């Protein structure tokens, strides 16, 4: 874990309250105006309002620990708190100024105490132990905590742009065909938006929706392999004019599409299926048919891809979108991961409450480790991007997916690099080694 960089002023005085339902000595609290606490820009809700003790800010910790995915246990007999995150382990005891971090003794400024059945521990010790950065905003009376970088999948959508929005230049920070490491170290893989289908099941490299496989596409794959980036062939199709509906209702077309995708997938590490617009304005009977047909198509494709050890990613409209033609539970059983397109809600930046709702609804039927939060870069600012990444971290998702390369600013790349460590999920090989 990275060593924390703790703010050098009032943040050093902050403390955290660890919640447990055990009785104990009462600590005197000085009540000041309301204090808010944010982690990665997201507010933390507490059952007890933060307060001041001996000039130190105290906040309930159970919600804080859960928001940071820190595992905590309480030993009532010895009044001992134990917390673990990654390779860091801490132990504190009520009334004892000596704490332990990975079995090394640390003297605390203020010993843990109990107030109203809640256990209080120093925020400085907690922050240093688990790699958090802490800032105190005296004007807003606000505590802002930045969690350490999380290892996760970071997927970049790579699609045809122009001289101003070039995916190549954004990724390699050079004009085609020159390359450098550029921003490749911030990503784990690429979803290459080069393919579509017609309703007869033919695989297209030039589509009506503008998805095209560019000249020199082989070089993109070769260079991606050189920089150890996974590559997924992305098949994009919209249900405009009922194209997807007609395709999925034609068994011959379905078989042809599955076989064509499987054959082309030999050039890649996996497939990313992006069928958009399903279920909009469909009545109950047709909606059921749409959901079942798409789930059956995904099952057929997943089974064929598994024979060649290829993974399948689905890029889906969010569960709380207008497009209800996706059975997340059924699809989650077949796909290796699902990218939730939690955007296009109508406002910019995308509303946090709706993004959180989308994630929570998806997590209710699909394991978190299979879910990836899709982020629409044109809808976000650097500040709101940090919050969206924070949602993925708080809900322990598999990672994030960025629509799209060519649209990120330098400040956004900085946020991504500071907030995440890219994890390679698929087997990495260059194009040459796959042929």
Automatic annotation (TrEMBL):
<dbReference type="GO" id="GO:0016787">
    <property type="term" value="F:hydrolase activity"/>
</dbReference>
<dbReference type="Pfam" id="PF00704">
    <property type="entry name" value="Glyco_hydro_18"/>
</dbReference>
<keyword id="KW-0378">Hydrolase</keyword>
<dbReference type="InterPro" id="IPR017853">
    <property type="entry name" value="GH"/>
</dbReference>
<feature type="domain" description="GH18">
    <location>
        <begin position="152"/>
        <end position="419"/>
    </location>
</feature>
<dbReference type="InterPro" id="IPR036582">
    <property type="entry name" value="Mao_N_sf"/>
</dbReference>
<protein>
    <submittedName>
        <fullName>Glycosyl hydrolases family 18</fullName>
    </submittedName>
</protein>
<dbReference type="GO" id="GO:0005975">
    <property type="term" value="P:carbohydrate metabolic process"/>
</dbReference>
<dbReference type="InterPro" id="IPR012854">
    <property type="entry name" value="Cu_amine_oxidase-like_N"/>
</dbReference>
<dbReference type="InterPro" id="IPR001223">
    <property type="entry name" value="Glyco_hydro18_cat"/>
</dbReference>
<dbReference type="Pfam" id="PF07833">
    <property type="entry name" value="Cu_amine_oxidN1"/>
</dbReference>
């Amino acid at each position: 874990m990275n060593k924390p960089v703790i703010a050098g002023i009032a943040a050093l005085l902050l403390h955290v309250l660890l919640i447990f339902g055990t009785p104990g000595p009462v600590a005197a609290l000085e009540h000041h105006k309301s204090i808010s606490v944010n982690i990665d820009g997201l507010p933390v809700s507490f059952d007890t309002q933060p307060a001041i003790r001996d000039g130190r800010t105290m906040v309930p910790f159970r919600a804080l620990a859960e928001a940071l995915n820190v595992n905590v246990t309480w030993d009532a007999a010895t009044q001992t708190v134990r917390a673990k995150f990654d390779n860091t382990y801490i132990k504190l005891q009520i009334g004892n100024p000596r704490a332990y971090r990975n079995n090394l003794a640390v003297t605390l400024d203020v010993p843990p105490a109990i107030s109203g059945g809640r256990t209080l521990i120093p925020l400085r010790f907690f922050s240093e132990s688990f790699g958090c950065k802490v800032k105190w905003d005296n004007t807003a009376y606000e505590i802002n905590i930045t969690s350490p970088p999380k290892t996760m999948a970071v997927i970049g959508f790579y699609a045809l742009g122009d001289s101003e929005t070039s995916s190549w230049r954004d990724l390699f920070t050079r004009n085609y065909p020159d390359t450098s490491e550029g921003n490749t170290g911030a990503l784990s893989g690429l979803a290459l938006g080069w393919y579509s289908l017609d309703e007869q099941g033919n695989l297209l490299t030039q589509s009506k929706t503008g998805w095209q496989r560019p000249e020199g596409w082989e070089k993109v794959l070769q260079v991606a392999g050189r920089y150890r980036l996974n590559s997924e062939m992305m098949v994009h199709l919209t249900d405009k004019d009922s194209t997807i509906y007609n395709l999925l209702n034609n068994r011959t077309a379905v078989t042809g599409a599955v076989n064509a995708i499987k054959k082309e997938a030999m050039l890649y590490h996996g497939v990313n299926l992006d069928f958009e617009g399903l279920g909009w304005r469909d009545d109950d009977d047709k909606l059921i048919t749409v959901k079942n047909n798409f789930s059956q198509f995904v099952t057929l494709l997943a089974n064929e891809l598994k024979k060649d050890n290829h993974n399948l990613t689905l890029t889906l409209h969010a569960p709380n979108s207008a497009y209800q033609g996706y059975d997340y539970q059924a699809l989650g059983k077949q796909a290796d991961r699902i990218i939730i397109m939690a955007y296009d809600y109508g406002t910019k930046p995308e509303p946090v409450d709706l993004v959180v709702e989308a994630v929570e609804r998806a997590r209710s039927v699909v394991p978190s480790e299979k879910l990836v939060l899709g982020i629409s870069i044109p809808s976000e600012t650097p500040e709101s991007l940090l919050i969206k990444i924070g949602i993925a971290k708080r809900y322990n998702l598999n990672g994030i997916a960025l629509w799209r390369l060519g649209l990120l600013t330098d400040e956004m790349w900085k946020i991504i690099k500071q907030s995440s460590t890219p994890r390679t999920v698929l087997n990495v090989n260059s194009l040459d080694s796959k042929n």
